[in-house]
Design goal:
This protein is mostly helical. The protein contains 7 helices and no strands. It is elongated, with a radius of gyration of 21 Å.
Amino acid sequence: MANPTHHIDESPIRFDRLVQSLPNWLQRFLPIGGGLAHDHHGKGMFGVTVFLLSESLIFLSFFFTYIALRLTHPNWLPLGVKGPELSQFIIFNTVVLLSSSFVIQAAENALKRHKTIQFRWLLALTSGMGIYFLVAQAIEWSNLNFRLTTGLMGGTFYLLTGFHGLHVLAGIILQLLMLARSFIRGNYNKGHFGVSASTLFWHFVDVIWVVLFSLIYLWRT
């Protein structure tokens, strides 16, 4: 068997040594050893990480816009509008979404141990928790006393939560796709990049919701 081909790292900074000094949980998102030609998983995860960083910039622009608008508009809430309020329903929905990160991580760990049945159940549970979150969010929207056209407050609320909801939906679709692929014989024998990428994407979705939850429901005027 031929030796694996290496891409020589000619940069002035020894990137491979820098990566090896990072925590193990962070190393999984970066290419190692200067980039093995056959290291598709490492390169793929690095690509996903770069993609999520670009998505973070979009969300950050939304967050800063929301903060700037609230700080520069004393009459943020239109007359007669209560705005989104923190409730046990919202808290429970948040707990469900954040807990799903632990479930999907357990699913990936099960797949690494070749426990396919456990992986399927845990991934299906993650998808179900995500679906619950979207349904609960739709119920919340239907009970609000403002709409998208209700001033800056209404426009920014629906833009932020709606854009995040689209990411939740995308994550669910990815999970269901990974679940379907698990029924193809030997599909994950040579690697599970898709599952790792879906897991990382879902963690990203949850972190974004923590920021949104803090801005929308905990920041009171």
